[in-house]
């Protein structure tokens, strides 16, 4: 073969345009026009799957964390309201007659427990206990919070939050 000429092709078969040994071969476009798909098309990478689960856990922590905070605030508010109801349980007959306004600790406990019983909210329980000296009433409320997302990832399904309030059973003698 001589150096300046392209190699001869066998007669009768068309093999396309002559190719030089330094000619660049054009890249075929990927996609349906070639009939072949790239090897990774349509597959989810492992990183993306793990990242998606991590993002869902973070969203679950935010949603359920906020729910737990709301449940704790609600428990504190209900305990304070029940304690106020108990603190207003004065002996009405003595107060009307002009005698001292006295709060009976047992009446205060009954009033606070009655307030809690009338709430009629699912997952809310509470107790009211007067102190040993009869000057304070402590109300404790428990609220059961049902998680919205975290139970899907193995966290507990419910959390119990507690709120406490104490009221001073004030009496006057005037």
Report mean pLDDT, rounded to a whole number: 81
Global geometry: rod-shaped
Radius of gyration: 40 Å
Unreliable stretches (pLDDT < 50, length at least 5) are none
Assembly annotation:
single chain
Structural class: alpha+beta
Head-to-tail CA distance between termini = 130 Å
- Beta fraction of the residues? 15-25%
The count of helical stretches stands at: 3
Comma- or semicolon-separated keywords:
34% helix, 17% strand, 174 residues, rod-shaped, 3 helices, three-stranded antiparallel beta sheet, alpha+beta
Write the layout of secondary structure elements.
Blueprint lengths: L45 H42 L4 H5 L8 H13 L6 E7 L5 E11 L11 E11 L6
Antiparallel strand pairs: 1-2, 2-3
Structure commentary:
The structure is a single chain. With 174 residues, the protein is of the alpha+beta class. The chain has three helices and three strands; from the N terminus they run H-H-H-E-E-E. The chain has a three-stranded antiparallel sheet. A hairpin with a 5-residue loop joins strand 1 and strand 2 (136-146). The protein is rod-shaped, with a radius of gyration of 40 Å. The mean pLDDT is 81.
Question: How would you summarize this macromolecular structure in one to three sentences?
Answer:
The chain is built from three helices and three strands; from the N terminus they run H-H-H-E-E-E. By secondary structure, it is α+β, with helices and mostly antiparallel strands. A hairpin with a 5-residue loop joins strand 1 and strand 2.
């Amino acid at each position: 073969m001589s150096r300046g000429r392209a190699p001869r092709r066998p007669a009768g078969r068309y093999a396309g345009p002559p190719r030089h040994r330094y000619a660049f071969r054009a890249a075929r476009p990927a996609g349906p026009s070639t009939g072949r798909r790239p090897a990774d098309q349509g597959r989810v990478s492992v990183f993306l799957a793990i990242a998606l689960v991590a993002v869902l856990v973070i969203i679950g922590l935010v949603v359920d964390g906020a729910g737990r905070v709301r449940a704790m605030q609600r428990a504190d508010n209900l305990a304070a309201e029940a304690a106020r109801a108990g603190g207003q349980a004065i002996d009405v007959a003595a107060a009307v007659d002009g005698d001292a306004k006295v709060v009976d600790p047992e009446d205060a406990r009954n009033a606070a427990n009655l307030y809690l019983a009338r709430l009629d909210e699912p997952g809310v329980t509470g107790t009211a206990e007067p102190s040993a000296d009869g000057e304070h009433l402590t109300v404790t409320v428990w609220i059961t919070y049902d998680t919205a997302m975290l139970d899907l990832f193995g966290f507990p399904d419910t959390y119990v939050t507690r709120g406490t309030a104490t009221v001073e059973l004030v009496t006057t003698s005037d």
